[in-house]
Amino acid sequence: QVQLVESGGGSVQAGGSLRLSCAASGTTSHIYSMAWFRQATGKEREGVATIYRDGGNLRIADYVQGRFTISQDNAKNTVYLQMNSLTPEDTAMYYCAARVGGLAVWYASLQGRTYNTWGQGTQVSVSS
User: Fold this and answer.
1) Helices vs. strands in the chain: H and E counts, helices first
2) Regions of the chain with pLDDT less than 50
């Protein structure tokens, strides 16, 4: 089993930055991809970024392209989401997700159904 724990959320003013962390524990050798999703109150969950653990292929959603980046430290089993130039529209609960097991391929997916392990989330609030 794999467990994911997010951290780094908080409250910032528009234009500010935050870096979210997602630490994985357990059978981490079976993790092939990790991703960040977010869900604002009253809205559907949306994918933000994903990264392939073996090789570092990554994909950033168009709506945060140029402001958000995803990176990883495999030695620490941790994935990061660097968020810059934050706007109130970025306010949401941010979730880390992992695709554990299955085929060792890069799906570049920002669809929630691709991932089978989820963290509890960390809240990001951006004020104007």
Assistant:
1) 0, 11
2) none
Are 99 and 33 spatial neighbours (Cβ–Cβ below 8 Å)? yes
pLDDT at 38: 98
Angle value at C-alpha 33, between 36 and 64, nearest 5 degrees: 30
* CA–CA separation, 9 and 120 (whole Å): 12
Reading phi first (left if > 0) and then psi (alpha if -120 to 50, else beta), residue 86 is in beta
Q: Which of 127, 100, 120 lies closest to 7 in space, CA to CA? A: 120
Contact present, 96 and 7 (Cβ < 8 Å): no
Closest CA to 11 of 97, 119, 64, 86: 86
- Contacts of residue 49, defined as CB under 8 A and 6 or more positions apart, other chains included, come to 35, 36, 58, 59, 60, 61, 64, 68, 69, 70, 81, 110
The pLDDT score that the predictor gives to residue 61 is 97
Q: Summarize pLDDT for 50-85 with one digit per residue, the tens.
A: 999 887 799 999 999 999 999 999 999 999 999 999
